[in-house]
Amino acid sequence: MSSKIVPLHPQNKTTPEPRRLTSSQVYENTQVAFQRTELALILNVYGQMVSQGEWKDYAMDFLKDRAIFSIYRRASEQPLYRIEKTPGLKDKQGQYSVIAPGGLIMKRGHDLKAVLRVFDKMRFRVTR
């Protein structure tokens, strides 16, 4: 009894190379989100402002082109500030920005920690 061994991949035919995707093609159909380290920085600032009684609530939105962390004084209002991550601006002005209620961009940059310095105690003093 003889058996013939048949190779699974014929040696005379070349198999095509797997198609390599660029980073923009990989993330094309997904949504943008904050990474754990970015979220830790944002929540650190948020926690400080909550302990001072300035902020009460937050919301996170994850869209195709940006991730938004909205900060509220009360849940029924429009956001006081929005912290946005827009990867499409990474090579231009910077992907992180802090936006005031009227749409004014208070600070924009490549480093989230530097952008969040807009909320430092001395710059963000509230008079009553």
First-last Cα distance: 98 Å
Overall mean pLDDT stands at 79
Oligomer: single chain
Structural class: alpha+beta
Radius of gyration: 24 Å
Give the strand content.
15-25%
Number of helices: 3
Helix content: 10-25%
Tally of DSSP β-strands: 5
Describe this structure in words.
The protein is α+β, with helices and mostly antiparallel strands and 128 residues long. It has a domain at 54-118. The protein is built from three helices and five strands, in the order ααβββββα. A five-stranded antiparallel β-sheet has the order 1-2-3-4-5. A hairpin with a 4-residue loop joins strand 1 and strand 2 (67-72). It starts with 22 loop residues before the first helix and ends in a 13-residue tail after the last helix. The mean pLDDT is 79.
Quick synopsis:
The chain is of the alpha+beta class and 128 residues long. The protein has 3 helices and 5 strands. It has a domain at 54-118.
